[in-house]
Design goal:
With 139 residues, the protein is of the alpha/beta class. It has three helices and ten strands; from the N terminus they run E-H-E-E-E-E-H-E-H-E-E-E-E. Strands 5, 6, 7, 8, 9 and 10 form a six-stranded mixed sheet that branches. It is globular and about 45 Å long.
Length: 139
């Protein structure tokens, strides 16, 4: 079979406020290029690329996107994120934060999955879920 799908997939994540999203992704180590065409940005680091698009009338509780990012050193990525504990925040608190115009960014603890990857997740300021995984540390 011919490899017609050779290339890369890039998720486009909806956001309410592009400036807040850009500041968040820069703050966690990404380079950001804002499109001259409008409220759209390219978020990159090494081989990882995400796009964010400001979406009018965005509801982070029903319209947030998802992406999975494979990394070489999942421990280092998790250590670089200083985010609230996702498990400690209730849905009511998240809705209250959004109503106050605050970020919904948070992260889950690291865990080893039965499929052989070490993973954690983080949610960006607009509740987009980014799962991050890589090989477990070698003992």
């Amino acid at each position: 079979m011919v490899a017609v799908w050779r290339g890369a997939a890039v998720p486009i994540l909806p956001v309410d406020d592009l400036d807040r999203s850009v500041a968040f992704y820069r703050g966690i180590g990404f380079d950001v290029e804002i499109s001259a065409e409008g409220r759209y940005a390219f978020v990159r680091s090494e081989g990882v690329q995400l796009h964010v698009s400001e979406t009018g009338g965005f509801d982070p509780f029903s319209q947030a996107g998802m992406a999975y990012v494979f990394v070489d050193d999942v421990e280092a990525v998790r250590a670089a994120l200083d985010l609230d504990d996702a498990l400690a925040l209730s849905h009511a608190e998240l809705r209250a934060r959004w109503a106050r115009g605050e970020s919904l960014a948070r992260a889950t603890p690291m865990q080893d999955e039965p499929w052989g990857l070490r993973e954690f997740s983080f949610m960006d300021p607009d509740n987009n879920l980014i799962r991050v995984g890589g090989p477990p540390p070698r003992n």
